[in-house]
Amino acid sequence: MNNLILIALPEEAPDLFNRPDVFFTGIGKINAAITAMRVINEYHPQRIINFGTAGGITVSSGLYKCTRFVQRDLIIPDIGIAITGNDPIEFETGGFTVSTGDDFVMNAKDIINADLVEMEAYAIAKVCKETYTDFLCYKYISDAADEHASGNWANSVSKGQPYYQEILKKLNI
Q1: Overall pTM surpassing 0.90 (yes/no)
Q2: What total number of domains does the chain contain?
Q3: Which among 71, 114, 144, 165 has most CB atoms closer than 10 A?
Q4: Given the DSSP bridges, would you call strands 96-100 and 116-118 parallel, antiparallel or unpaired?
Q5: Average pLDDT score over residue span 84-92
């Protein structure tokens, strides 16, 4: 398989569940990194494609191609600080920046310097960079990364699936 697809949860793309090229990472950076490394070592793909949901910081509804990835380690909203890693990863120019952290962002629009927030893309991008594997990332905006984020995410977790299927069709995968 030249292309492998990584998605955090089956609920994000239930109709893609039975495809042999789809792997579910589980939530978070550690799970995503482990899965990415495992499938790259086992299948030696030319490209990894990551689909999933994200909170919108500078963007609203729809699907966005992410090309720059930053790691988010800690948010302290009370004092307006978001601590990020010093090694952003960029696969191409012209896309959107995603901030990846192991937390569900619900109130940090003013302190996160990114377009989207989510929990897996940076880890997958890092593994792909280290293994010289091409990487494409598309995130569907499920919520506004605000106080209503968890409820909005739960109500729209699978709504990105038609967009993912369209991308796969365009890529002839």
Answers
A1: yes
A2: 1
A3: 114
A4: parallel
A5: 79
